[in-house]
């Protein structure tokens, strides 16, 4: 598999290391995915907080250090939780291959966010 043109366009402004991990993850994932969002404006982030879709105005999306994806099965976007750990495994493998420190939102103890991947702040402040 590979990323479609729309997903690649959504990687514009995203840190090159995260974009590279995303490209590689798309090649090796057992579950297809699209990139739904990368770099965000402050206005977009504020709107997401207001709508309850985010809890922070200090998102890694604001600096291009985070992306969100959506699973695609049989041409349809799916949000079923069991799909996202499988996608995360591909991201982890890609990140390990490239030596990129990556955080998956699905590993967070509170407010797990399966579609979210970001560069580790310790390595990419």
TrEMBL record:
<feature type="domain" description="Peptidase M15C">
    <location>
        <begin position="54"/>
        <end position="119"/>
    </location>
</feature>
<dbReference type="InterPro" id="IPR009045">
    <property type="entry name" value="Zn_M74/Hedgehog-like"/>
</dbReference>
<dbReference type="Pfam" id="PF13539">
    <property type="entry name" value="Peptidase_M15_4"/>
</dbReference>
<dbReference type="InterPro" id="IPR039561">
    <property type="entry name" value="Peptidase_M15C"/>
</dbReference>
<protein>
    <submittedName>
        <fullName>M15 family metallopeptidase</fullName>
    </submittedName>
</protein>
